[in-house]
Write a structure and sequence with these properties.
Blueprint: H1 19-30, H2 36-39, E1 47-48, E2 54-55, H3 60-68, E3 71-75, H4 80-92, E4 97-102, E5 117-125, E6 129-134, E7 138-145, H5 146-154, E8 163-168, H6 176-189, H7 191-206, H8 216-232, H9 239-266, H10 273-305
Antiparallel strand pairs: 1-2, 3-8, 4-5, 4-8, 5-6, 6-7
Length: 306
């Protein structure tokens, strides 16, 4: 079967920052990971590099690889030549690629208007042309010249040619207990560093040095955690506990996206800044309180397994 015959199973609107998970879930689905979108994300935390972006844990791809026993790598490259070489090697092994691009160059609401990171699926590359699938905007394979591909991949917003490579499918079917426990253990293991990242970001925002608050990566991770626990809630034996956690993460995702949108619309100006800071601090408290519900679910699943 030609890679050009592949159709993404997870399509449609992907809110800010979640296009990476959407594309990774499609890669995993093509490798026969069941309920790929719902079981992809088992990480929960924060990361901050000192600028205006507070991201999610940035561990979600490594966590997915560990939980599902699959070879999923989230890579960046120092040069276009290195990135292109990795793409071609993956395609030669009949493995599609998820690749960061600049949405400025693709059919979308940002085309020709704004430079913003987006993720698409690379299906083929014959030297002169590439074929990509954009699960959000244009799922059908679409051809672009090799030069157009280089330009959209080389843009600054594409994050050093960020590339997701999945070269072998899942070798383990994770149980509900394994999935929920993975989320709790990830949060516990990294709690100190994650909290330091959040508090550092909050302090920078309070000092007025962060500019526009970009928290879409945080919202995206919570969005996919909501999908996970909604999936687990389908089990009647632990459905009530899982539903509480699912609603908690879904609510967090909505609130993080609201904060992100309000800050973008303000342009980082002083108007409404105090309100944004209050929202940010409150979200930090909500994150902490949700750990109680996650612990209760894991305890219920553990008791059920004994």
């Amino acid at each position: 079967m030609s890679l050009l015959e592949l159709a993404p199973a997870i399509t449609g609107t992907a809110p800010f920052g979640s296009c990476y998970q959407q594309c990774a879930a499609n890669l995993a689905s093509w490798k026969r990971l069941g309920h790929a979108a719902e079981t992809l994300c088992t990480s929960w935390g924060f990361s901050w590099g000192g600028g205006p972006v507070l991201d999610g844990s940035e561990r979600w791809s490594a966590a997915a690889a560990a939980v599902h026993h699959m070879d999923l790598a989230d890579r960046t490259f120092d040069s276009w030549d290195a990135a292109e070489r990795a793409e071609r090697e993956s395609l030669a092994g009949e493995h599609p690629v998820a690749a960061a691009v600049d949405a400025f160059h693709l059919p979308s609401s940002y085309e020709g208007k704004e430079h913003i990171a987006h993720c698409v699926l690379l299906l083929a590359h014959d030297g002169d042309r590439v074929w990509i699938s954009d699960p959000m905007n244009r799922p059908e394979p679409t051809a672009y010249s090799a030069e157009e591909w280089r330009r959209m991949r080389s843009a600054e917003v594409a994050g050093s040619f960020r590339t997701l490579l999945l070269t072998s499918g899942p070798r383990h079917r994770a149980t509900a207990l394994e999935l929920a426990t993975a989320v709790r253990e990830d949060a516990l293991t990294h709690r100190s560093a994650d909290r330091a990242a959040f508090e550092g970001y909050l302090a920078a925002c309070e000092a007025g040095t962060a500019g526009v608050l970009d928290v879409s990566g945080v919202a995206a991770e919570r969005l996919y955690l909501g999908k996970l626990f909604k999936h687990l809630a389908a089990d009647a034996r632990t459905g009530e506990e899982a539903a509480v956690v699912a609603e908690g993460f879904t609510s967090l995702s909505r609130r993080w996206y609201l904060l992100h949108t309000l800050s973008r619309e303000s342009g980082g100006g002083a108007t409404g800044h105090a309100r944004l800071l209050r929202m940010l601090a409150e979200l930090g408290d909500r994150e902490t309180r949700l750990t109680v519900a996650v612990d209760a679910l894991v305890s219920a699943l553990t008791a059920q397994a004994e």
